[in-house]
Write a structure and sequence with these properties.
The protein contains 1 helix and 7 strands. The chain is mostly beta strands. It has a single domain, classed as Beta-grasp domain (Ubiquitin-like (UB roll), Roll).
Length: 112
């Protein structure tokens, strides 16, 4: 795989039951071309860290379960194409349950 086809990904991590403060894990060399942000998260989970917590359900952009922030904007990870450099964080104004999983009891719209 060429260098251009690999991404640098920075992922927000926080488990309020264990961690005092949030932190970020960084991953280089992640395939991203033609993949969604959700695909990238699943790749990181499967190949690098099975403790990473995130949600998805319909994979069709209908349920908003996969809502998160990509480079400062709320997006649905199942619809948004991955980028060469990504900072992935929990959805804005939501209580973090663990990592990218947030309390979904209040509605927040994706900026897509």
């Amino acid at each position: 795989m060429s260098e251009q086809a690999l991404a640098k990904v920075k992922i927000y991590r926080y488990n309020p039951k264990v961690d005092r403060e949030p932190y970020y894990d960084e991953y280089d060399g992640i395939p991203f071309e033609g993949r969604t942000v959700l695909d990238v998260l699943k790749y990181v989970y499967e190949k690098h860290d099975t403790s990473l917590a995130f949600r998805y359900s319909c994979r069709g952009g209908l349920c908003n379960v996969c809502l998160l922030m990509l480079n400062g904007k709320n997006v649905m990870s199942c619809k948004k194409l991955a980028e060469k450099e990504m900072i992935i964080e929990p959805a804005k104004n939501k209580k973090v349950i663990k990592d990218l999983m947030v309390d979904l009891s209040e509605k927040v719209e994706a900026g897509v």
